[in-house]
Specification:
The protein has nine helices and four strands. It is elongated. The protein folds into two domains: 4-145, no CATH class; 170-214, no CATH class. The strands form two sheets. Strands 1-4 form a two-stranded parallel ribbon. Strand 2 and strand 3 form a beta hairpin. Helices cover 43% and strands 7% of the residues. The chain is mostly helical.
Amino acid sequence: MLPSWYKRAEVGMRDPTMAARSVLLLLLPLLIPASLRGQRTDIQTFFDLLAVDPEQEAIVEQAILDGWNDSHAAMLVELYRFAQRRDRTRLFLLLERATGQPFGQDMDRWWDWIWATNPGIHPDYSMFKARLYSAIDPSFRDYFDDGLPANIRLDEVRWGGVVRDGIPPLDLPAFTDARGARYLDDDNIVFGIAINGEERAYPKRIMAWHEMFKDT
């Protein structure tokens, strides 16, 4: 008989988005550092919310409630993005039970509450994020090194929907004069720069697509 997680993943393959999430969840146990395998860590309990058989879900949820601290809320909200629909409902019901906040599945309200109350972060939060995000792109692990100085809150770092370098920068673009820019409408926004008597205009529409450009 196939294990239950395989059946759930197989169902997800019918939809590309669900398939990606299923692959992510299947990879998570393989991403635990060798030094941690076999150990029961706090962050493993949170990953178990999406990985255990349905019969074990209540046990895992109770374990999280028994050791609850509001600094754990960010991890449940992070897991939401990679969970299947059924598990998403469970995650937010658990959040509401643990925190007493009635925000349902409104992720923005949960983040606003976390940032407003500033409950701190789980001691292993950077490890949690490294493991979660490296399942999308292994290079993401480099962004969550405890030894690196940081000037922003770790819970403000959120996935933008692509792998690293998934949006190529615009390198040394070719230029044309205004008459040649027939791909622009009259009301399109451009950013103008003048340096040493040389003027250039960068269309917002093009820059928004690449998010970064390099020019000399």
